[in-house]
Amino acid sequence: MWDYTDKVKDHFLNPRNVGEVENADGVGEVGSLACGDALRLTFKLDDVGRIADIKFKTFGCGSAIASSSALTEMVKGKTLAEAAKITNQDIADYLGGLPKEKMHCSVMGREALGKAIAYYRGDLEPEPEGTLVCDCFGVTDKEIERAVLENNLKTVEEVTDYTKAGGGCGRCHEQIQAILDKVGTECMVEALAPETAAQPKLTTLQKIHLIEDTLEREIRPSLQKDGGDIELIDVDGDLVLVELRGVCSTCAAAQVTLKGYVETKLRELIAPELVVEEVTA
Amino acid sequence: MIYLDNNATTAVAPEVLEEMLPFLKEQYANPSGMYTFAAEVGRKVGEARERVAALLGAHPDEIVFTSCGTESDNTALRAAVWSNPDRLGVVTTRVEHPAVKNLCEHLEHVGHPVSFLPVDGAGRLDLVQVRAAMTRSVAVSSVMWANNETGTVFPVAEIGALAHEAGVVFHTDAVQVVGKIPIDLAGLPIDMLSLSGHKLHAPKGIGALYVRKGSKFSSFLIGGHQERGRRGGTENVPAIVALGKACEIAADSIERERSRVRRLRDRLESALLERIPNARVNGDVENRLPNTTNIAFEFVEGEAILLMLNEEGICASSGSACTSGSLEPSHVLRAMGVPFTAAHGSVRFSFSAYNTDADVDRVIAVLPGIIARLREMSPFWAEQTCKMPA
């Protein structure tokens, strides 16, 4: 059984604001019967532009109903600008946390609110929202990117927990990994940029840490996916010595992987003068 | 508490517990020992083997004790594949328990061609397709006797005969059947059969595999001489004794309990269908376990139903996506083509000899209200009622 907090149970068993606001100013719908959960949100503004009344109808599990109920309580009395700032993590926090497999319920709440606000503002087709990545659950690259950034997601599994993308046939896992790689790289470059500007040369220790970190986060997962692996043996100046493991150790294309992928990645993310070489056991 | 999830596991029968306790206390000898203390324990293991065999219509030498149904399934399929190296193929169905389904997917991954036979909307196999799949290149076929989610019973006698026509070893996962409907393996074309103790009021951690005399066999757990060399590892004596007792009780009461449990199940099912609109039964109602009903309540989600039932102290289970941690509804309901509107809202009630009329009354009293409440919350229900003619 899921480990739901008392607050989740309370909002599921005694949901607030169930129903539909008449002559609503904003209407937002997300999900479908096929997906297994869906939410319809309607709200009405008062004279000064605050949310006077908001109601939901939800088809879904306990945490989907609780997330919807929590969301309506959170935004009541807020202006649309204030309401728009609410993230899925805020909804989860309000409920005292959600099981990680259920985080997509909070994402659904945030998306429905976004759509309802867009509806009010007259953007009937709010932001084209990128291209479809997961056909099973109809999730786009933009939605995945947003969930990755907002929740600092690192793995395909986490993306599935938060957005459902990749939870069906699994054919889009590579695309999701590519989005993770892209977002991860952008973040890392941003994080590194000021530091490298102020301190043009990394100390040896910093360099080793960064190399270890990059191997761990970026490189090993994709090699492991194909049954291979890599281990850092030593760093000597700009020379990075590694050992290939698993299927990589006997693979004819290992040198291509080493130079074309591992070295390129390390140069791109750490320092352009790095040279990767394999040590043989 | 009202426990209606007996296809998941059952309560240990008090008589079973009593029978096994001495073997957790004073009678702790390893049955392999060369002293009277051990011989007494060994005799009791032998008696348990006889009791299991009696329930199945088998010879005691044909029973191998294992740790669970999953181990039995793994042993059976791997043994059949390993001892028939000139045949690579495997035949199974799309609705097997994960113990067989995921094992077959693994076998496929390592190079065995596997046919996953489809089922129709009621969960039935097409025997023409079964016959076509059984070719001279197939080593083993594994078809469950009854489905754990819907209770649909497969015609294993016919399927086994079709397998044997092509020289294919036939295994059946009978975990949901043993103790629920009478079995007589002596007259059936079944080479191997898996069962699990905790589905028939023995504790968890004990299973058995029936291996027909003369079948080619190869051990899965390689080790000592236990189980006549067919399964290494010191015998789990208390659990083996418990399984023996549970089988003895089942053999005595199966005819009586089967009709009693069927009556309870039928009463619950018809009352719910009568009181709750847009509800339908999943599975083959003509050929079904007496204790199982799987009902789809359209436009609501299964986990929400279970959580509300839980508040009423009622335990049931669901094929909905949200209860499993996966995101798609059960592979069984999907294989049957149950529409999404219904699959997500499917609830399984499974009975045992310990259920009563009062249990049924209580579910009938609370479930219609729960479904109505969740439908009021569902954005699809209003649309649905609007579309329906007045």
List the chains of the largest interface with their residue counts: A-B, 31 and 28 residues
Helix content of chain A: 40-55%
CATH architecture of the largest domain in chain B: 3-Layer(aba) Sandwich
Order of helices and strands of chain B: EHHEHEHEHEHEEEHEEHEEHHHEHH
Distance between the termini of chain B: 40 Å
Identify the CATH class of the largest domain in chain B.
Alpha Beta
Name the structural class of chain B: alpha/beta
Nearest-integer average pLDDT of chain A = 84
CATH names the topology of the largest domain in chain A as: Sufe protein. Chain: A
Domains of chain B, number: 2
| Overall tally of domains of chain A | 3
Helix content of chain B: 40-55%
Overall shape of chain A: it is elongated
Treating each run of at least 4 consecutive H or I residues as one helix, how many helices of chain B?
13
Number of DSSP helical runs of chain A: 10
Largest sheet of chain A: 3 strands, antiparallel
Give the low-confidence spans of chain A: 194-199
Q: Identify the CATH architecture of the largest domain in chain A.
A: Alpha-Beta Complex
From the alpha carbons, calculate the radius of gyration of chain A and give it in angstroms: 23 Å
Strand fraction of chain B equals 5-15%
Average the pLDDT over all residues of chain B and give the rounded result: 94
